[in-house]
Write a structure and sequence with these properties.
single chain; 290 residues; alpha/beta; Rossmann fold; 2 domains; six-stranded mixed beta sheet; 14 helices; 6 strands; elongated; binds zinc ion
């Protein structure tokens, strides 16, 4: 078997996790070490994965979520309304959830954002070194390490964007951050879809009706329900009566991406964008077929 650049990319996660068996591993390294495109990519992703594992898991202070709700929603009686919602999320999330605190925070940001609260909408443009330096000034990160992470992430994005630009047609995509009410994924996910050669066919980070989604007729539906890990349920989408004629439903192209890979606006996005690329452009699918 010839190891092409595409195959290297497809098997990169397996390689870094030590899942390749001996002849494959050697072949992978033979290509990766001698290819001017793949060598920096493998180094970037290896570095990012290492840094993600090195991050400390944070436990959210018990009152944090309620303090945020107090500050944003005000009166106590509203908070009790949110209690049920938060309990529902806890029920769905596994107790020992790697990005637990970040994920719950992101959920709140997405849901409150969609309800019209004026959270600043994060964008990939926030990955400017200048912005990182500002947070470094506040003592949050060491500047050099943070800038390295940003550089590696950009390399992954650029590589995928270059591949996407060779595609003739943009893929129509709906990404969902929450199923009830339906909320589309946040703005930075729309940007990731764009990098992968797709178009988010609904407004990002907004509450939507099922009719709106049906009218937009996505070819691919990605579920990344906030704070649920990979527990989003494609069957739920396949069973929506009003979506029967949607192209993604007809072609059985509803997929799940672990929510923190899309919903955490930081290093996990490098893994998220590769996953997104893989699902939007499956290798066995004929590009020219419509
Ligand atoms: Zn290569």
């Amino acid at each position: 078997m010839t190891w092409t650049c595409d195959l290297i990319e497809a098997r990169l996660s397996d390689y870094l996790e030590g899942l390749l068996q001996e002849p494959e591993r050697a072949a992978f390294e033979a290509h990766a070490n001698s290819c001017a495109d793949c060598a920096p990519l493998v180094a970037s992703v290896r570095g990012l994965v290492g840094e993600m594992h090195a991050m400390e898991e944070l436990e959210a202070p018990p009152r944090l979520v309620y303090s945020i709700l107090d500050k944003t929603l005000g009166p106590r009686e509203t908070v009790t309304g949110w209690q049920g919602f938060l309990n529902a999320i806890r029920g769905l999330a596994t107790p020992k959830f790697a990005y637990g605190a970040a994920s719950v925070m992101t959920t709140l940001i997405i849901i409150l954002g969609a309800s019209g609260f004026s959270f600043r909408k994060s964008k990939l443009a926030d990955l400017r070194p200048a912005a990182i330096y500002q947070s470094a000034d506040r003592g949050v990160h060491r500047a050099s390490a943070a800038e390295q992470v940003v550089r590696k992430m950009r390399r992954v994005f650029v590589r995928i964007e270059e591949k996407a630009q060779r595609r003739k047609r943009r893929v129509r995509v709906y990404c969902e951050a929450w199923p009830n009410p339906r909320i589309s994924s946040p703005p930075w996910v729309a940007e990731l879809v764009g990098i992968c050669g797709g178009t988010l066919v609904v407004p990002a980070g907004e509450k939507l009706t099922e009719r709106q989604v049906a009218a937009a007729d996505p070819e691919v539906i990605i579920l990344a329900w906030a704070a649920t890990g990979s527990k989003a349920d494609p069957a739920q989408a396949y069973n929506v009566a009003g979506w029967k004629d949607v192209t993604a439903i007809q072609n059985r192209r509803v997929h799940v991406i672990r929510d923190e890979l899309l919903n955490t606006p930081g290093p996990p996005l490098a893994e998220g964008v590769r996953e997104l690329w893989r699902l939007l452009h499956p290798p066995n699918r004929n590009e020219h077929k419509t």
